[in-house]
Amino acid sequence: MPYKGNFLSFVICYLLFVICHLSFVIGHLSFVICHLLLVICHLSFVICHLLFVICYLSFVIGHLSFVICYWSFVICHLLLVIGNGNFSPASPASSSPSSPITPSPFPIPPVPNPQSLLPIPHQNIRCPIIRMRW
């Protein structure tokens, strides 16, 4: 059945349909692009959050290893002090004057004079750790 109305009104309606269809396609594409950007931002947030958790766990593990090393140092130091005879527990056998103190197989090194450890004034001595002149 041929179109019986005004041809100009048909062209205007068809152009309006094409414009509406194009605006729908553009709106749909902008929605898809915004959704993809949202997904990318969410994934980057998740990745950053995972990196933060990994860094925090490494900090906790490092802190725990420091605490373990510190307490092992304290325990080893106490064992050395006990082994050298400088520490006597409060027991009746050790408080009697007749029990001799057994010498330790690990001799105590002599303590150096603190004055000998100080640098001579106005002498160029390089610190091996931080490379500063004293």
Count of helix runs: 3
Low-confidence stretches: none
| Rg value | 42 Å
Distance between the termini: 105 Å
Quaternary structure state of the chains depicted:
single chain
Structural class: mainly alpha
Q: Estimate the helix proportion, in percent.
A: 55-70%
Helix and strand pattern? HHH
- Could you tell me the number of beta strands? 0
Biggest pleated sheet = none
Instruction: Identify the overall geometry.
Output: rod-shaped
Query: What is the averaged pLDDT score?
Result: 78
Strand content: under 5%
List keywords for this structure.
63% helix; mainly alpha; 134 residues; 3 helices
Describe the structure.
It is rod-shaped and about 130 Å long. 63% of the residues lie in helices and 0% in strands. The chain has helices spanning 7-83, 92-95, 114-117. The protein is mostly helical and 134 residues long. It has a domain at 7-83. The longest helix is centred in the middle third of the chain and has 77 residues, at 7-83.
Task: Furnish the topology, listing elements before pairings.
Layout: H1 7-83, H2 92-95, H3 114-117
Can I get a quick summary?
By secondary structure, the chain is mostly helical. The chain is 63% helix and 0% strand. The protein has a domain of 77 residues.
